[in-house]
Amino acid sequence: MKRNEFLSKLGIGAALVCTGGVLHACGGGDDAGPSNNGGNNGNPVNFTFDASTDFPNIGSSKVKQGVIVVRTAATIVASSFVALDAICPHEQGSIMYDETNNRFECALHHSRYQLDGSVINGPVNSAGSTRALKKYNIAINGNVITITE
Ligand code: FES
Fold it and tell me: Is 91 in the pocket of ligand 1 (CB under 6 A)?
């Protein structure tokens, strides 16, 4: 059993990601899903959100099918949103959006990632390394945001 699965069974994983003041990963959605294979446990990612109601503000985020989606700008266009893997490639920690620094950070060992998913720094006080987070396609039609692989 991996660390994330163990914490998840205890309910600790969710508690960890919900305590940060500026780190967002609990904006809603149906699950973070243990995924380290770029998507939803091998299933194709394909889902929608409503831009206005699901992402009312810059910095609003949602996690669904193992993907974290964040609104990073005011205008409702595809470039105002980012969709990346919600699970860290290192040891499956939850990825959160750091609104203050406009980047992503792992809750477990604090690897940090750019908005394009590239690595800023690897794990802190933990062996091993990480890799870039998978980036997903975003299409906007009116207020409907569609996320696909
Ligand atoms: S699990 Fe993300 S840095 Fe270790």
Answer: yes
